[in-house]
């Protein structure tokens, strides 16, 4: 994973919860879990097919994906990436134009 993406991600990901009772298994680092999530998303594989080389298991990566989705990490990261690219002048907004046309959906299809 590129360092630049990791730096942006660190700004939006919540801090890991602490276990007051101690013990248990070591929590996988956010960077390795993010790399696993990106792999699943781009490779098109299932969580169960996640190669062990990433560190966290498929269920662990999925659980963290769900946790981060619940607190809108992906939306925050998306906005942060757009803001960063926009501030550098690296976005071509002319390709992002959307026509604001409202259409009523027909019931029953064609």
What does it look like?
The chain is mainly α. The chain has 4 helices and no strands. The protein has a domain of 52 residues. Helix 1 crosses helix 4. The mean pLDDT is 86.
Keywords:
110 residues; mainly alpha; extended; Transposase_6_like; IS402-like_dom; Transposase; 4 helices
Overall geometry comes to extended
* Share in β-strands: under 5%
Order of helices and strands: HHHH
Into which percent range does the helicity of residues fall?
A: 40-55%
Question: Short summary of the structure?
Answer:
By secondary structure, this protein is mainly α. The protein has helices spanning 3-12, 30-43, 58-70, 73-87. The chain has a domain at 1-8 and 29-72.
Topology:
Blueprint: H1 3-12, H2 30-43, H3 58-70, H4 73-87
């Amino acid at each position: 994973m590129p360092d630049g993406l990791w730096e942006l991600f660190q700004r939006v990901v919540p801090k890991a919860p602490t276990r007051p009772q101690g013990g248990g298994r070591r929590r996988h680092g956010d960077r390795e879990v993010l790399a696993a999530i990106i792999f699943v998303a781009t490779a098109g594989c299932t969580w169960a097919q996640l190669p062990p080389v990433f560190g966290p298991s498929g269920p662990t990566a999925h659980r963290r994906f769900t946790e981060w989705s619940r607190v809108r990490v992906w939306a925050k990261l998306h906005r942060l990436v757009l803001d960063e690219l926009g501030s550098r002048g690296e976005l071509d907004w002319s390709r992002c134009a959307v026509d604001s046309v409202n259409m009523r959906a027909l019931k029953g299809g064609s």
